[in-house]
């Protein structure tokens, strides 16, 4: 960083000739495409920032007359620019460490993106004159015009834009009466002396749609009367941006193919699993360019008999899994067996479900984060081509072989138990750096996993192997996919699960019959 790029480490410049020299220095040492004025609450600090692609690359302070200040700024304008940017850090006073650090100034500049406006030289002159006079305009500035109201209503879709609300403001939720029950709220207050007001920028943004939220009565009172200090302008602007992004995503989904959605939830470790919300369903389906066709079909919802799983429960488990698969198949006949499946439970349960659903239809398992409990795909695009499979162990395989699917982690118990069985291990992993609950982070990665495992199981069967011992440590989605990779005429698969400090067989999948069968191995 050039030494003088952070002039704010020194006293403010009080001679125009010094700005001329500094401008020449900047021109030879840095690149910038925008020139901004950054000021804070009550204009206690004013910093001139040179910005390159939203990063502050230089900063200085001026102590000049209003006219000289504008002249100084014009000396610093990048080539081709005639206007300036004005940014208001509402609700905060710039700290010494922020003013003297380009990184900190960049953080502030990005944080107040919704409170940055473009100004011509005449407007900036007016700002510096107001600053010198230390005068505040009283009362509100321009009223909100009909055109601005129309724009706000248009991009809010008539709903409260407060984070997590989204209430329909065209109807009274209690009586059902139609009407306009909305309130327009300024991010930067229209009145300079308001809770979120400021000299110059209040007038500038008083009729700007980007500075106005549509709110319900409760949240309008919250930000203006109850907890105004908790909701500075930059936070409200962030709400507006997030609302637009989310609503756009959801509305874009109207152009997607509608598919039925099923939830198959089995309790894990005595804990029930929450059903996916409508928003989580829409977010999950967006990745496969689909949208839900009607309401969520609940196949099984945390069966109380499975809260405590013992040996007797495991003996009855195959029938419970079969019933779930049968219901999904029966109810998707009209959709050509294409559906999204939100399934969660113990890994053997999910593998059995995947095996019975098969890979000839288009059942797409969805991922649930174990950390957050949300259903969502972490990646918008696939990150790698295919998982890694060590096929060398097939050379030493005879009648039986172990397939260890280690996607979430690689437990040491796999090696210990393999040693006790005296069998070779075929490792199935993802490329280094992608391990974890999100190892399968996109449906195409899931499709690649199924394809590679299908090929592996074919090779195993062709080798003459009579039984596959399946060890697995994977997410809910990956577990279903592993089951879907088991085809007709593959060798039988014995699925293990963790129990105390070892592994125990929990499910036997036999693909050698006319239809795949699952049973208890005990």
UniProtKB/TrEMBL annotation:
The superkingdom listed in its UniProt entry is: Bacteria
Q: Which InterPro entries match?
A: SAVED (IPR040836)
Q: Which Pfam families match?
A: SAVED (PF18145)
Q: Where is the SMODS-associated and fused to various effectors domain?
A: 329-501
Name of the molecule in the record: SAVED domain-containing protein
What organism does this protein naturally occur in?
A: Marinobacter shengliensis
Q: What is the lineage of its organism?
A: Bacteria, Pseudomonadati, Pseudomonadota, Gammaproteobacteria, Pseudomonadales
């Amino acid at each position: 960083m050039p030494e003088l790029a952070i002039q704010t480490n020194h006293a403010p410049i009080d001679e125009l000739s010094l700005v001329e020299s500094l401008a020449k220095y900047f021109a030879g040492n840095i690149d910038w495409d925008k020139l901004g004025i950054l000021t804070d609450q009550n204009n206690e600090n004013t910093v001139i920032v040179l910005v390159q692609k939203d990063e502050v690359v230089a900063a200085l302070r001026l102590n000049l007359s209003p006219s000289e200040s504008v002249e100084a700024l014009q000396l610093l304008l990048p080539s081709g620019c005639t206007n300036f940017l004005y940014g208001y850090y509402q609700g905060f006073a710039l700290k010494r460490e922020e003013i003297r650090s380009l990184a900190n100034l960049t953080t502030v500049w990005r944080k107040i993106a919704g409170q940055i406006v473009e100004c011509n030289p005449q407007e900036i002159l007016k700002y510096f004159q107001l600053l010198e006079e230390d005068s505040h305009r009283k009362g509100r500035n321009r009223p909100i015009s009909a055109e601005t109201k129309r724009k706000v209503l248009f991009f809010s879709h008539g709903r409260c834009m407060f984070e997590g609300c989204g209430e329909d403001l065209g109807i009274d939720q209690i009586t059902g009466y139609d009407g306009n029950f909305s309130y327009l709220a300024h991010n930067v207050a229209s009145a300079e002396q308001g809770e979120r007001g400021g000299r110059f920028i209040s007038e500038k943004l008083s009729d700007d749609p980007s500075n106005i939220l549509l709110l319900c009565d409760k949240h309008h009172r919250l930000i203006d009367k109850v907890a105004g200090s908790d909701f500075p302008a930059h936070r409200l602007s962030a709400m507006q941006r997030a609302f637009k992004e989310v609503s756009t995503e959801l509305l874009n989904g109207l152009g997607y193919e509608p598919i039925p959605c099923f939830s198959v939830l089995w309790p894990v470790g005595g804990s029930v699993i929450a059903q996916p919300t409508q928003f989580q369903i829409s977010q999950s389906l967006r990745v496969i360019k689909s949208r839900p066709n009607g309401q969520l079909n609940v196949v099984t919802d945390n069966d109380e008999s499975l809260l405590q799983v013992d040996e007797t429960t495991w003996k009855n488990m195959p029938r419970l899994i079969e019933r779930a698969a049968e219901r999904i198949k029966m109810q998707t006949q009209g959709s050509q067996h294409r559906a999204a499946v939100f399934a969660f439970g113990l890994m053997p349960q999910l593998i059995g479900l995947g095996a019975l659903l098969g890979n000839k239809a288009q059942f797409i398992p969805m991922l649930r984060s174990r950390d957050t409990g949300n259903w969502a795909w972490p990646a918008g695009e696939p990150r790698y081509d295919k998982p890694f499979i060590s096929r060398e162990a097939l050379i030493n395989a005879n009648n039986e072989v172990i397939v260890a699917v280690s996607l979430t982690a690689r437990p040491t118990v796999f090696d210990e138990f393999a040693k006790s069985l005296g069998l070779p291990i075929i490792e199935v992993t993802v490329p280094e750096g992608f391990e974890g609950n999100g190892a399968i982070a996109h449906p195409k990665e899931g499709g690649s996993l199924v394809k590679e495992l299908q090929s592996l199981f074919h090779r195993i069967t062709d080798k003459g192997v009579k039984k596959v011992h399946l060890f697995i440590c994977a997410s809910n989605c990956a577990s279903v996919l592993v089951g879907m990779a088991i085809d007709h005429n593959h060798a039988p698969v014995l699925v293990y699960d963790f129990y105390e400090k070892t592994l125990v067989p929990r499910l036997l999948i036999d693909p050698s019959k006319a239809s795949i069968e699952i049973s208890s191995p005990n």
